Amino acid sequence: TLTEGEELRFTGIPNFAPEILRRVQLDDPARGKQLRKALEDMAEEGVVQLFTPLLGAQPVIGVVGQLQLDVLASRISMEYKVEARFQPVAFDCVRWIHGDDAEVKRFITGRRDVMAEDRDGAPVFFARSAWELKHFAQEWPKLEFNKTKERA
């Protein structure tokens, strides 16, 4: 990048809301640490997005297409020696929530069953349908339900 003195700010490649969500289930629960390491490594590489639900222990991954799931399963098995299955979830849409801290906290408090954090700790809302997402956006006009998240 060339500049003649303008102040530039690079935010990196944004995260986009995934098209496919799956809950990760281990075949051998004793391999939990290896699975967590594998998922964190893959998320850092950008292979998947990793979400930690506020309720429940099983992580949720997000991908753009089926091929990413196949690559993830293969790499977890070959590189980390972990056998895992990907179970469908009841959610259709993922959105990052932004707004006044108090308003975000109030929203999260009443919906812990459909909330998660991304790997950076940002709040994420899981909607069961596009209609439900629209409904919450109308009900909470002070909040933004964003399809992308800028990386720091």
Concise overview:
The protein is built from four helices and ten strands. By secondary structure, it is α+β, with helices and mostly antiparallel strands.
Please name the defining characteristics of this protein.
eight-stranded antiparallel sheet; 4 helices; 10 strands; 152 residues; two-stranded antiparallel ribbon; 28% strand; alpha+beta; single chain
Describe this structure in words.
With 152 residues, this protein is α+β, with helices and mostly antiparallel strands. It has helices spanning 32-45, 66-80, 101-109, 130-139; strands spanning 15-16, 20-26, 49-53, 60-63, 84-88, 93-98, 115-118, 123-127, 144-146, 148-149. An 8-stranded antiparallel sheet has the order 5-2-4-3-7-8-6-9. The longest helix is centred in the middle third of the chain and has 15 residues, at 66-80. The chain starts with 14 loop residues before the first strand and ends with a strand. The model has no long low-confidence stretch (mean pLDDT 89).
Reconstruct the topology from this structure.
Elements: E1 15-16, E2 20-26, H1 32-45, E3 49-53, E4 60-63, H2 66-80, E5 84-88, E6 93-98, H3 101-109, E7 115-118, E8 123-127, H4 130-139, E9 144-146, E10 148-149
Antiparallel strand pairs: 1-10, 2-4, 2-5, 3-4, 3-7, 6-8, 6-9, 7-8
Total beta strands: 10
| Secondary-structure element order, N to C | EEHEEHEEHEEHEE
The count of helical stretches stands at 4
Strand order of the largest sheet: 5-2-4-3-7-8-6-9
Radius of gyration: 17 Å
Gross geometry: globular
Task: Return residue spans where pLDDT drops below 50 for at least 5 consecutive residues.
Answer: none
Helix content: 25-40%
Derived from helix and strand composition plus strand pairing, the structural class reads alpha+beta
Distance between the termini: 18 Å
Integer average pLDDT: 89
Biggest beta-sheet profile = 8 strands, antiparallel
- Beta-sheet strand percentage? 25-35%
